[in-house]
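Supplementary Methods, section 5.1.

A reviewer requested that the exact input to the structure prediction be made available. We therefore reproduce it here, unchanged from the version used in the analyses.
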Amino acid sequence: MWLFALALLGQSLGISGYLLDAQAPDAVLVLPTGRYEVALGPGCEFLEGDANVEVLFGSSGSAVLIQSDQRCPALVGDLVDETPCAQNADGNCDVAAEIDQ
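The structure derived from this sequence is encoded token-by-token as follows.
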């Protein structure tokens, strides 16, 4: 099931996550809860390759991906793998920690 990602900042709580192969058709959003299908919306070209993002979830379960103050609406799909994100020394999801494994 795809959810259209549109979140209002006042109703959101951001968590760290990262994208694997951001512009690929089979891109994956990696969060502490696992790995999810994701399709980026228009205007998300600033997300390239493997990228750390902040994920803002709205009250309806929708999401917006943020990197360097740029926002990306996305379609977040099903959980495809329960493996949680790799974390840095601060306990945040960090794509560099995934690559170093």
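The mean pLDDT is 83. These observations are discussed further in the main text.
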